[in-house]
Fold these 2 entries.
Entry 1:
Amino acid sequence: MKRVLGMIAGATLAVAAASGEAQAQSMDAARTINFGIAGGAAAPVGDRLDGYDVGYNIMGTLGFQPAAMPVGFRLGVQYQSLGANAGDDLKLFGADANAILTIANNSGIKPYLTGGVGLYNLDAGNGSDSQTKFALNGGGGLQFPMSGFNTYVEVRWNTIFTEDAASYIPIVFGITF
């Protein structure tokens, strides 16, 4: 009798776990619009930003990913602060629009490529005028599904079209709902 009850309990747990996973997957597949937050490091690259150290990045996103399509879109608003070796930190505030290309959509972990255009305001402080310029970015990431939300790790190369191109690399961890 104990053995039969144990088998019934085990089968019940297995069915409950499988239906919970299937429900989470169907929720994720049905969800086409998402919003998210992300944060991490921002590393300056190239001669234009030589006087700055690695700083931080915070970002808010609004995404659109059709369930059966490999291509989606994401709008983002970002703030970066790069520490200065001397003087004021460089503050970057911007918005961008990106395409997201999911490379593999058949497992839990989904690798993707991203790229797009943006508009950024650079403020170096020290009484200098801030400037707003167009930018391009490209990179990739890995998305990890969780129960009711997704997480991701992403690396991009951002180039802001100043006189001698200001570039930095944000490395972020994000959550989308």
Entry 2:
Amino acid sequence: MMPFAHNDFGSDPRIARILDIFAKETETDRALLRPDATLDDLGVASLDLTMAVFEIESVFDIEIPVVAAQPGAEFTTVGALVAHVITVLDGKKLETPSQAGAGATG
């Protein structure tokens, strides 16, 4: 997982977009979304988290795999969710060139 400073997510523009989506879907004040903020402390219901994950998947055209036995359980903090999404995005970026050439035959 990607380490984040206590109150800082860094300058990756994807992170800002993830946080914007999360804030909108969960109706959470964007200013409260710090890496160490727990979903419980923010009062994010599991259904709201699920809807936020679906919207993130839709916007970024990715599938966020479930890490734990209970969907959403792996995301106890905002930082954990963001780190997981960035990992998936980076993995997709690495797979794209090889997949493009995999179907080509001569």
